[in-house]
């Protein structure tokens, strides 16, 4: 039987020691999504203030590939934040990878099982370009969906550019460009996240309602990776640009 406390301790040791471990389900074959979220909630203890959330597996193609029919989510704490211009210390991570995101900054609290994309947009103070640094605690990024949920959806660090009002911007259609060391390595549109990034955030709100939680004014939400993630190492520079929203740069050391 899975022991969420023991599994959380394994993952916390892996993170703090920057040492990869085998996926939990190797030892706990009955690990399921509910248990994964129990482990994730335990990992929130001692991480500082909760400042937002991140979505994962928001691509329909990726969902089909891994055999799930909905995204997953993880939490963002104060120690996940990189200030603009602050470099990423790659030695502080096991296997960092970067991907571009549309970031929502909430202007109002939002909760409930009936929230839609329209409600999300009405409650959003601004959107911004973000770069999320993924960092799986598992060896070679090998995991099942319950494993990655337990591992806080591979949350590592993130940086956010300047926010702009979402009014008049069709977030489905904005073009996304990811550059790695001056070369374009991926392109996409905002629709890559569940058809509309606000729909992904709405799914998050509905899912959080099951545990009595929701979004609060000021929360940051990473609405899902829009391209494949690119591995990074010391000396690399990653730039994410999204039409009508802006760009953000992350240097690695």
Architecture blueprint of SSEs:
Layout: H1 4-17, H2 33-43, E1 50-56, H3 60-66, E2 72-77, E3 97-106, H4 117-122, E4 124-134, H5 145-150, E5 155-160, E6 175-180, E7 183-189, H6 197-208, E8 220-222, E9 230-231, E10 237-242, E11 246-251
Parallel strand pairs: 1-8
Antiparallel strand pairs: 1-2, 3-4, 3-8, 3-9, 4-5, 6-7, 6-10, 10-11
Question: Gist?
Answer:
The chain has helices spanning 4-17, 33-43, 60-66, 117-122, 145-150, 197-208; strands at residues 50-56, 72-77, 97-106, 124-134, 155-160, 175-180, 183-189, 220-222, 230-231, 237-242, 246-251. With 253 residues, the chain is an alpha+beta fold.
Number of strands: 11
Helix-strand sequence: HHEHEEHEHEEEHEEEE
- Choose one word for the global shape: globular
Round the Cα radius of gyration to an integer and report it: 17 Å
Counting helices, strands and paired strands, the structural category is alpha+beta
Distance between the termini: 41 Å
Proportion of residues in helical segments:
10-25%
Relative strand content: 25-35%
Number of helices: 6
Determine the mean pLDDT: 95
Q: Describe the biggest sheet?
A: 7 strands, mixed
Poorly predicted tracts of residues: none
